Amino acid sequence: MQLTVLIVDDDEEITRSTGIFLKAEGYRVLEAHDGLEALDMLMSEEIHLVLLDIMMPRLDGISTLMKLREKKNIPVILISAKSEDADKILGLTAGADDYVTKPFNPSELVARVRSQLRRYTTLGAMEKPSESVITINGLSVDTESKTVTRDGIDIHLTPIEYKILELLMRNPNRVFSADDIYRRVWNEDAAVNDNTIAVHIRHIREKTEINPKQPQYIKVIWGIGYCIKK
User: Fold this and answer.
1) 125 has a pLDDT exceeding 70
2) Which of 60, 94, 122 finishes a domain?
3) Is the pLDDT assigned to residue 128 strictly greater than 50?
4) Strand intervals (E) in 137-217
5) Domain assignment of residue 150, given as a range
């Protein structure tokens, strides 16, 4: 199978010259010149690795990467003229697999591409995710190991917090009242103070959300209950 690399850079000379080296290695090469164009291409093409510039018009590389990670787990190598450690850490924290600074040696870049694709294809990343893993917008629950991750980062929940999150993740878009959650998680019919569930939900948000005050996972449906939107 021929692997496809998407080069995203507003400098057409860089996309052209980098593409020459990658094509020489047998890769299929696609080009995009801003983040929005790249995201559109990722939805319509089968792409196995992205070379992503950070400084671009319309949608910068970091924002593009964060949106990409909501849907795709393919390798991403950031390319930037910024060489400060803080910039590298920001990129890697946002979900990049590698970081290359400009100007770069094309042979070294090709070697990094080859290395990332080898890991992606040989370590099973291209295989269908295990049926025991439920993933919604980067948040994953493994129902066998009882573990939780967000964008690959481990999240440690208490047993009760885990049970509540698993219940909601197994039933996306379904609204559960506080009583529903109590009966299913505690396996008891006794009524529960709504505040008890609210406290657990708050703790889950504090551990899973980037910004708990603007949650993207567990939503409150006022007067009804809680759900995870998919």
Assistant:
1) no
2) 122
3) no
4) 139-142, 147-150, 153-155
5) 133-228
Assess whether 150 and 210 both reside in one domain. yes
Starting at the edge strand found earlier in the chain, the sheet holding 133-136 runs 133-136, 139-142, 147-150, 153-155
Tell me, yes or no, whether 30 and 107 share the same domain: yes
Last residue of a domain, one of 58, 91, 122: 122
3 state DSSP class of 166? helix
- Give dist(CA 141, CA 114) in Å, integer: 31
**What are the tens digits of pLDDT across the range 89-103?**
888 888 888 999 888
Q: Is the pTM of this model over 0.70?
A: no
φ/ψ of 49, rounded to 5, equals: -160, 145
Q: Which residue has the tokens 């010149």?
A: 33
User: Does residue 137 share a domain with residue 96?
Assistant: no
Q: Give yes or no for a contact between 100 and 73, defined as CB atoms under 8 angstroms apart.
A: no
Q: How many Cα atoms are found within 13 Å in the side-chain-facing hemisphere of 213?
A: 0
